[in-house]
């Protein structure tokens, strides 16, 4: 891949907004922000935005954190510390540290950038790519940067094509036949259609490209504007639509596919059901998200752990995994694992059964336990003979059962269950 100075990415920085809790993930975000939630067996959600930037050729990055940031900061320090300042590479972690005023945390997505203008200035970049840190996808930002420059836009907005009936959950845009944005609406009841296809709508991905000098001035003006929420989707983008040139960029033009005819893969794993489904999808014979692509790898913190181990070979006590993903450090001891994803250092014990379940790191499953359609939080110890996922009414007494029937289990829930026995 060409890393030369002719690439626009070499003149750009990525600013990742990673401060959100992600409350729809329920107890999975009780101790960590949504971008720090585990995904795919060994990565975190934030790794996708960071890996896309790195693979695109961007070597200057900043991550704005706010809600329960320790897990996210520790992950970035351990897994993303390979940037070298002497090579003009940087990754700055920017907690909401009241740098501007003692009573002022990040007030909105745009304010997170405004409060760090001096840091962005120090990078000496021409372009800034604003990224949400809580989505799963592969995208070459260099292609979006090129389109931004060629169109002469003040802002270019990454967008998905979604069914119009489902678009009310997004920030959406109306465009003309040249994809110039004519209106930008946050979660409208009646989303606009697309030119030539009234059944589809363009929805914002929360990815924006700006010329830095232009955005810098706009942010300073917005910070002094009474009534502004200091938000990109709510204030900055609509202002540019009204007074400047806002351009839409289709994700299909820059997504990284594992095959020429593959669908463009993007997931908001912001609910327990969506999170479970996206992880379980990885156990398919040919998953839509290719984590094995060496040309566009997803970088992360790689622990030093031994290979996965499967032990015991008796009729009802056989360590086995079928249509599953099992990370390093796991010990599958006399357990039948089917259509499940086991993160690093999961240990399962004899006579237990796992089916369509996602087990986060350091989970321990006791003997004779049965888990079906479950998400087990990191570090949980499943007691012997506990059955989860077979009786939703019984599960609801102590655990979180989603609208789609996925049972979420955390250690405090297990402690409450154990105290009631």
UniProtKB/TrEMBL annotation:
Site (Could play a key role in the communication between the regulatory and the substrate sites): 66, 105
Gene3D superfamilies membership: Hexapeptide repeat proteins, Spore Coat Polysaccharide Biosynthesis Protein SpsA, Chain A
A GO BP annotation: glycogen biosynthetic process
EC number: 2.7.7.27
Catalytic activity: alpha-D-glucose 1-phosphate + ATP + H(+) = ADP-alpha-D-glucose + diphosphate
Superkingdom, taxonomy of origin: Bacteria
Top-tier EC class: transferase
Gene Ontology MF terms: ATP binding; glucose-1-phosphate adenylyltransferase activity
Record-annotated Glucose-1-phosphate adenylyltransferase/Bifunctional protein GlmU-like C-terminal hexapeptide domain positions: 306-409
Binding-site positions, alpha-D-glucose 1-phosphate: 106, 171, 186-187, 204
PROSITE patterns: ADP_GLC_PYROPHOSPH_1, ADP_GLC_PYROPHOSPH_2, ADP_GLC_PYROPHOSPH_3
Pathway the protein acts in: Glycan biosynthesis; glycogen biosynthesis
Keywords in alphabetical order: ATP-binding, Carbohydrate metabolism, Glycogen biosynthesis, Glycogen metabolism, Nucleotide-binding, Nucleotidyltransferase, Transferase
Stretches assigned to coiled coil: none
Segments forming domain Nucleotidyl transferase: 14-283
Quaternary organization: Homotetramer.
Function according to Swiss-Prot or TrEMBL: Involved in the biosynthesis of ADP-glucose, a building block required for the elongation reactions to produce glycogen. Catalyzes the reaction between ATP and alpha-D-glucose 1-phosphate (G1P) to produce pyrophosphate and ADP-Glc.
Protein family (similarity comment): Belongs to the bacterial/plant glucose-1-phosphate adenylyltransferase family.
Protein name per its UniProtKB record: Glucose-1-phosphate adenylyltransferase
Organism from which the protein derives: Palleronia sediminis
Taxonomic lineage from the root: Bacteria, Pseudomonadati, Pseudomonadota, Alphaproteobacteria, Rhodobacterales
Gene expressing this chain: glgC
């Amino acid at each position: 891949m060409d890393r030369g100075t002719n690439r626009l990415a070499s003149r750009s920085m990525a600013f990742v907004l990673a401060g959100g809790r992600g409350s729809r993930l329920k107890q999975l975000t009780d101790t960590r922000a949504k971008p720090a939630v585990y995904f795919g067996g060994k990565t975190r959600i934030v790794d996708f935005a960071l890996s896309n930037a790195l693979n695109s050729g961007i070597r200057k990055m900043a991550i704005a954190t706010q809600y329960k940031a320790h897990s996210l900061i520790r992950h970035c320090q351990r897994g993303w510390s390979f940037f070298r300042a002497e090579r003009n590479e940087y990754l700055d972690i920017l907690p909401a540290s009241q740098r501007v005023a003692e009573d002022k945390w990040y007030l909105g997505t745009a304010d997170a950038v405004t409060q760090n203008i001096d840091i962005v200035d120090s990078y000496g970049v021409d372009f800034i790519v604003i990224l949400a840190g809580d989505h799963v996808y592969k995208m070459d930002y260099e292609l979006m940067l090129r389109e931004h420059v060629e169109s002469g836009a003040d802002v270019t907005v990454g967008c998905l094509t979604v069914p119009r009936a489902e678009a009310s959950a997004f920030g959406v845009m109306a465009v003309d036949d040249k994809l110039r944005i004519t209106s930008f609406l946050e979660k409208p009841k009646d989303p606009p259609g697309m030119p030539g296809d009234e059944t589809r709508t363009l929805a914002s991905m929360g990815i924006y490209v700006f010329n830095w000098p232009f955005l810098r001035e706009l942010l300073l003006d917005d910070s002094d504007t009474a009534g502004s929420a200091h938000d990109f989707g709510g204030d900055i983008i609509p202002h540019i639509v009204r007074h400047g040139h806002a351009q839409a960029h289709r994700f299909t033009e820059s997504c990284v596919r594992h095959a020429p005819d593959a669908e463009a893969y993007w997931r908001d794993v912001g609910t327990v059901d969506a999170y479970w489904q996206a992880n379980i999808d990885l156990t398919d014979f040919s998953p839509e998200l290719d984590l094995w692509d060496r040309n566009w790898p997803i970088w992360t913190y790689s622990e030093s752990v031994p290979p996965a181990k499967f032990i015991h070979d008796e009729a009802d006590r056989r360590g086995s995994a079928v249509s599953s993903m099992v990370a390093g450090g796991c010990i599958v001891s006399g357990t039948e694992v089917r259509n499940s994803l086991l993160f690093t250092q999961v240990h399962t014990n004899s006579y237990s059964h796992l089916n369509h379940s996602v087990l986060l790191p350091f989970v321990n499953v006791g003997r004779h336990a049965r888990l079906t359609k479950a998400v087990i939080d990191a570090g949980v110890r499943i007691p012997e003979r506990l059955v989860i996922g077979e009786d939703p009414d019984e599960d609801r007494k102590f655990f979180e059962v989603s609208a789609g029937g996925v049972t979420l289990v955390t250690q405090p829930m297990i402690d409450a269950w154990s105290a009631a026995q």
